[in-house]
Specification:
447 residues, alpha/beta, Rossmann fold, 5-stranded parallel sheet, 14 helices, globular
Length: 447
Amino acid sequence: MDITEAETQVRKAVVPIKIDEVAVVGMGYVGLPLALRFAESGVKVTGIDIDARKVDGLNSGRSHISHIDSKRISNLLKKGLFGASSEFSQVSDTDAVIMCVPTPLGRNRDPDISYVLETGRSIAPHLREGSLVVLESTTFPGTTDELLREVLESGSNMCAGDDFHLAYSPEREDPGNLTSSVGNVPKLVGGYTDGCLDKAIALYRKAVSDVIPVSSCRVAEAAKLLENIFRSVNIALVNELKIVYEAMGIDIWEVIDAARTKPFGFMPFYPGPGLGGHCIPIDPFYLTWKAHEFGSSTRFIELAGEINTAMPIHVVRKVAEALNEIHRPIKDSSVLVVGLAYKPNVDDERESPSYRIMDQLKANGARVSYYDPYIPVIGMTREHAQWAGEKSVQWKEVVVSAFDVVVIATAHDCIDFQELADWAQCVVDTRNAMAGVELNGCRVIKA
């Protein structure tokens, strides 16, 4: 008996898609919260990472990310719903593999998707028929359905869309935001084929309340870039206006507070010392690079990048102005940078503008120290290796008062800015953190 297309769709709708075990590759700021969310939803999860220290720590119930409670991990370990491994062969026991690996920029702002492709090569030999591979790393359109697909097909001797499923679902992690979690943030999903999309939707519905399908992997990839470009361009706008209004004697923070009273057509963005984190300073240039392939330019993106990249230099100029008022040069002056993390209340210092401020100050001969309760010791970084091993100073009056000037780069909630006003001689404030604080003779220069 012939089966009509309508009957096929009905049968397809009632046949459940089996997803009992998931592997998440990359136990960083994106992968670990995602893995824990799936495990808490009853899915057995293997977290895979090439860093043996992370793996050992997770299997001992220890979190390496400050805003993730170790108790969540230890509880899931006891229930048998979560475990970590450095062996990619573990994916052979899973129904889906989610890739959450870095996508940095090269020296010339060209995309570096080597982590994505190398991860694809590592998991390909272990893929089983019918399994699903999802990329969550931010990248340019075409990465999933072209480059990653080719690597997976070559290494597995299977065909995407026929033998295994392939999809893209951009991460939307917001570290430090207590009102945002993996489960309540809407999840975009694009599949290589309709069947791939169906399986990806079934996967994320296990752990996320609102799953939003789009027509292709490329649409999902492009949407993620738009989200980050939107922020980059608008932050650049207020950073530029900050300097313009400052020359006019107008406080940009008051201007933004006034403008945000409009109940429509305006969304507040705030200036700062530059952009940090793995997304906003990097991801827009993935589209810039890809656009050149199609003979297109991305002038807004490039201009926004120039403005935001110049902000640390502006901050150092304000430090020089502050020191000039007490007849001191930057050279041999002592400067304390408060806040090394790129945003408040996290221990993530990736791409932090604080590093560039510290580099500039040191290059001008200043004696530079930092304070950050979330980062007691600076680890090894690719671009700022000279700071590795540097320790945060103690938050004590005798320590803070000894500096010629203090620069507020990140305003953690746990920092007592009234104490800073009581202790410091001069503060260069890039975050408006001293607004409403009783100064008691402390000079504050906004930057």
